[in-house]
Amino acid sequence: MISQNDLSSKLAIDAKSMGELRQSAKAGAPEALKGAATQFEAMFINMMMKSMRDATPQDGMMDSQQSKMFTTMLDQQTSQNLAKKGIGLADVLIRQLSQTASAQALAIGGDAAAGAGAVDGLAGGANAGAAGAGGVGRLLDAAMLQRSINAAGGAAPLSGAALATGASAAGTAATAAAKAAQAPHVRNFQEKLGSHADEASRATGIPAKFMLGQAALESGWGKREIKGRDGSNSHNLFGIKAGPGWKGKVAEAVTTEFVNGKAQTRVEKFRAYDSYADSFKDYAKLITTNPRYEKVLASAGDASSFAQGLQRAGYATDPQYASKLTRIIKHSLVG
What are the boundaries of the signal sequence (predicted)? Predict the structure, then answer.
C-alpha cells in the first residue's frame, strides 16, 4: 500500500501507482480520498496548461512533434507537482466527500412556538463510507481516463464538459454520503416534505432546505406538531398563529413566548390546515406578502442571514431562534 497515497513524486503516467490508489479506495483507506482528490486537481491543472499552450504559437524552427511530446510530458509532471502544493480544488472535494463521515450528533433546542425540542442526529457509518468510496472511485476514473489519453500521445485533455461531469459525479456521491449519514428521523422528515418545500421554493425563491429547516425547528422534526382539542393534526409546521384576519380552521395549543428575555407559557390560537402542502403554501404566502419579511427574502441566499432576518423581523421570540435554525440548515439537512 502506498504511504499517504502521495503520487506527487512519481511520474504522471505511473499507472501502477494509480492502481494502488484504487485498491486503497476499495479497502476504505481514509488516505485514499486525499490521493484521489489530488489526482483530480492535477488533471484540472493539466487541462489549464494545455489550454495556455494552445493559445501560443508552436510553429518555430525548434518545434517538432518530439518537442511537443516532451513539452506535454513536462506539463503533466508539472501539474502533478503543483497539485501536491494545491490550488484549492482538492480541498473542496475532500470537504465534500468527508464532511458527513466526521459529522457529530448535534443537540438543539425546540422552537418556542411549538413548545418542544428538536434533535438532529448525524451519525456516520458503513453506508456513508460506501457512498464516499464511490465518490473516490469516480474521481479516479476521471483521472485515469486523462492519463490514458496523455499516454496515447499527448492528445487534448478532457473537455470542460467532461471535467464538470467528473466534479458533478463527486458531488452526487457526497450528497449520497450525506443522506446515508443522516439520522433516520431527519432523513424521513426531509423525504416526506421535500416536494412541498420545493413547490414553496419556486413561489418564494427561498431554498427548500431553509424552509425544511424552519419546519423542523418549529415542529420538533414533526414529532411535536400542533394538535387541536380533539387531537386532530393542524398540519401547521411553521407555528403560524391565527390572527384576526385568519378565516380558516384554528387549533389552540400551549406555547412558550419570551418576554424581555424570560420564558412565559400561554395558550395561543394557531392556523390549521387540511394538509402539509397547504401549510407550506400559506407560509410562502406569508413570507412573500407581509412587508416585515422583505429583508428576509432579500437575504435568502445565505442560511445564517436568512435565519437572522427571520429573528429580526419578529418571526419568533426565542433569542436563540436564529442560531438553532442555522445549525439545522447547515448540519442536518442535505441539499
Answer: none
Report field, pTM of the whole predicted structure over 0.85: no
- CA dihedral (268, 271, 275, 279) in degrees, to 10, reads -110
| Residue ranges per structural domain of the chain | 3-103+126-180, 185-331
Q: Which residues contact residue 280 at a Cβ distance below 8 angstroms, ignoring those fewer than 6 apart?
A: 193, 196, 197, 199, 200, 211, 215, 237
The position carrying cell 429573528 is 311
CA distances to 135, 138, 269 from 170, rounded to whole Å, are 5, 7, 47
Catalytic (active site) residue 282:
yes
Q: Is pLDDT larger for residue 197 or for residue 83?
A: 197
Q: 257, 268, 278, 302: which is the annotated catalytic residue?
A: 257
Q: What are the tens digits of pLDDT across the range 29-69?
A: 656 666 666 766 776 676 666 666 666 666 666 667 777 77
What cell does 49 get?
496548461
Catalytic hit among 218, 225, 282, 318: 282
Residue 226 near residue 241, CB atoms below 8 Å: no
